[in-house]
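TICKET: design request
STATUS: open
ATTACHED STRUCTURE:
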């Protein structure tokens, strides 16, 4: 074993040792020989320690885009502990490798543990989206959609069925809208939330009325999902309602409304968010408001540049 890995792996495998971010960073971009060494050490660690390491690696990667632990996460997809497998799936949220889509499809239908199947179902939404924008081949898209449809209709666990529906929201398959409608009309709050999330991902304005009618629902979870959907679908008719929701007592609803106003944009949204920023005391919410205003400024600036380009082209013709 290379000398530089020996103390690191011994420390990582000892639950009594505090995990060091600096030392964990050295696991980024492991080559194949070093990954094999890591794999042998990994198998001997307690399951709880493996999960702890995965969580820390995920946090580090979120904070520094230069770090890449995907080979370790891919290794953990075969872990004996279900919680390690599901954490590995969560950590792979940015990976667009088609082979991962196939692996997640297999886990969705074959893994014995609910939490792993649910994590796989949620993660496969990314691959449905990639297929819809033609960034993966049609055969893989069809495989992913087919397996999500099987899971949505037949998995024994409701969470897996719901996550499958949410991921299918990105799909243009004709089987999907009736499934979304059925969930939304079910009267079950959790299914309705999944239906609204799928509507948001569909980019289809046909769902506008269903979204708008839930912006002031008594259930906070439905208000929050409706607020998010209004932004994703860019429903300009929702702006006044979203401005009202920025005063909601529930954090999740309020934050969803703030970001959706940024997605909708316009002078009214900008003024409302700027006024909120002047009065807000919570640091996290202030940061969200600043990001929202930056997003509007960026989108409006991009739009202005596009209009200038169009005017220039028009004047030349």
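STATUS: resolved
RESOLUTION: sequence designed for all positions
ATTACHED SEQUENCE:
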């Amino acid at each position: 074993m290379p000398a530089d890995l020996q103390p690191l792996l011994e420390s990582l495998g000892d639950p009594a040792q505090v995990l060091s971010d600096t030392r964990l960073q050295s696991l980024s971009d492991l080559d194949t020989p070093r990954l094999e060494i890591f794999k042998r050490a990994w198998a001997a660690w307690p399951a709880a320690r493996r999960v702890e390491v995965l969580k820390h690696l995920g946090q580090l990667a979120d904070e520094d885009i230069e770090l890449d632990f995907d080979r370790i996460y891919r290794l953990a997809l075969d872990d004996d502990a279900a919680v390690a497998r599901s954490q590995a799936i969560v950590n792979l949220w940015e990976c667009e490798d088609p082979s991962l889509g196939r692996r997640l499809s297999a886990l969705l239908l074959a893994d014995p543990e609910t939490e792993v199947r649910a994590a796989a179902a949620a993660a496969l939404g990314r691959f449905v989206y990639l297929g819809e924008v033609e960034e993966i081949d049609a055969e893989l898209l069809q495989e992913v959609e087919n397996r999500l449809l099987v899971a949505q209709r037949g998995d024994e666990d409701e969470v897996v069925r719901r996550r499958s529906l949410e991921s299918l929201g990105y799909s243009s398959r004709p089987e999907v809208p009736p499934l979304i409608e059925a969930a939304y009309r079910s009267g079950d709050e959790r299914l309705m939330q999944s239906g609204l999330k799928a509507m948001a991902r569909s980019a289809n304005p046909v769902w506008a009325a269903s979204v708008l009618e839930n912006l002031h629902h008594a259930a906070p979870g439905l208000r929050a999902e409706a607020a998010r959907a209004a932004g994703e679908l860019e429903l300009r008719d929702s702006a006044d309602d979203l401005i009202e929701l920025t005063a909601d007592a529930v954090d999740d609803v309020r934050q969803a409304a703030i970001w959706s106003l940024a997605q909708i944009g316009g002078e009214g949204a900008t003024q409302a968010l700027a006024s909120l920023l002047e009065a807000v005391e919570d640091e996290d919410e202030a940061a969200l408001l600043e990001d929202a205003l930056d997003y509007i400024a960026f989108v409006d600036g991009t739009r202005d540049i596009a209009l200038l380009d169009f005017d220039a082209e028009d004047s030349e013709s």
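CLOSING REMARK: Residues 207-317 form a domain with the Leucine-rich Repeat Variant fold (CATH 1.25.10.10). Confidence is low (pLDDT under 50) at residues 304-308.
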